[in-house]
Design goal:
Blueprint: H1 2-18, E1 21-27, H2 34-53, E2 62-68, H3 73-85, E3 90-93, H4 97-110, E4 113-116, E5 133-135, H5 140-154, H6 169-182
Helix pairs in contact: 3-4, 5-6
């Protein structure tokens, strides 16, 4: 009976293993942040073409499912839900820190893995950390802590520093990390 059940289930298992690995990609492809999103998606397409030309992953081709999140949290969350509903288990992108942070809280519920390329928001791997999220780029600490320390050591008589940073989590984290490294 066990053998017969395995044989009956095997064709479905084999079919599932021959299907492409579908990876959801979200990024700003329209609006002001498209300046950052379009090159990210272009690079992801190049990488997938190289992987597929080399035989894919474990013999399976990789398929990108690309969506425009417009760097807007609500749009990104809607896309993540849509992709999860269509059988996509891997999500990449969300270049906006706000979208990436929203994805972090959503991934366990959707049973997806998220690979973030968001600039440097610390929350992605700190406050919003969970086992479904991986960072593909440096965070604010790795970018600005050593810079803050180097500046403090080079100019010990300078007690006040100013900076211009973006008014969102990346800028806030960068300023905080830089200032804390100096003390």
């Amino acid at each position: 009976v066990l053998f017969r059940s395995a044989a009956i289930g095997a064709p479905g298992l084999l079919l599932a293993q021959s299907q492409p690995i579908r990876i959801g990609i979200t990024n700003a492809l329209s609006g002001p942040n498209a300046l950052y999103g379009e090159p990210n998606v272009m690079g992801q397409r190049i990488a997938v073409n190289q992987v597929n030309k080399a035989g894919g992953i474990l013999g399976r081709q990789v398929e990108l499912v690309v969506r425009d999140d417009r760097a807007q949290t609500a749009q990104g969350v809607a896309i993540a839900r849509e992709l999860a509903g269509s059988g996509v288990n891997f999500l990449m992108g969300g270049g906006s820190s706000a979208v990436a942070i929203a994805y972090c809280g959503l991934m366990p519920e959707l049973k997806m893995l998220y690979f973030s390329n968001a600039a440097a928001a610390m929350a992605i791997t700190h406050e919003a950390w969970n086992r479904n999220v991986f960072r593909l780029c440096p965070n604010a600490y790795s970018l600005y802590a050593s810079l803050g320390r180097a500046v403090a050591e080079r100019y010990p008589n300078v007690l006040k520093w100013g900076g211009i940073t973006p008014d969102y989590s990346f800028g806030h984290d960068a300023a905080r990390v830089f200032a804390n490294a100096r003390s």
